[in-house]
Amino acid sequence: MNEASLFYKDLQNTQLHIGFIDKLFHTGDVRFNGNSGSKESVFAFEDLENANQVYNDIQRIIMDIQTDIEFPNALRPEENPGYNTNYTP
C-alpha cells in the first residue's frame, strides 16, 4: 500500500469510475490527477463500496474550499443567494 499527501491546489480532474467488474461487486473508484513533488501522477481510492458518496463528498469539499478561496469569510456579503458553503476554516 502506498500513501501520498496532496494539497488542495495540486488536485485536478476528479473522476468517478465504475467499470463492469465494479458493477458486479457494487464498488467503484474515485480517481484524480495530482502533483506529487515534481511529477504529475494519477491517484485513486479503489474498490469503494460507497464510491458515489465519496465522489460527491470530495466534489462538495472542493467547491467549499474554492468558494472560501475566492470569497474569504471577511469578504463575503451578508446575503449570498448564489452559493451557500458549509466550510468553516
Give the key terms.
single chain, 89 residues, alpha+beta, 2 helices, 29% helix
Describe the structure.
- The protein has 89 residues and is α+β, with helices and mostly antiparallel strands.
- It has helices at residues 20-25, 51-70; strands at 11-17, 28-36, 39-48.
- It is built from two helices and three strands.
- The chain has a three-stranded antiparallel beta sheet with strand order 1-2-3, covered by helices on one side.
- The mean pLDDT is 80.
- The relative contact order is 0.15.
- The longest helix is centred in the last third of the chain and has 20 residues, at 51-70.
- The chain is flat and about 50 Å long.
Largest sheet: 3 strands, antiparallel
Distance between the termini: 31 Å
N-to-C SSE series? EHEEH
- Beta strand %: 25-35%
If you compute it from the alpha carbons, what radius of gyration comes out, rounded to the nearest whole angstrom? 16 Å
Outline: flat
Strand order of the largest sheet: 1-2-3
Mean pLDDT: 80
Q: Tally the helices: what do you get?
A: 2
Low-confidence stretches: none
Determine the structural class based on helices, strands and strand pairing.
alpha+beta
Total number of strands: 3
Helix percentage: 25-40%
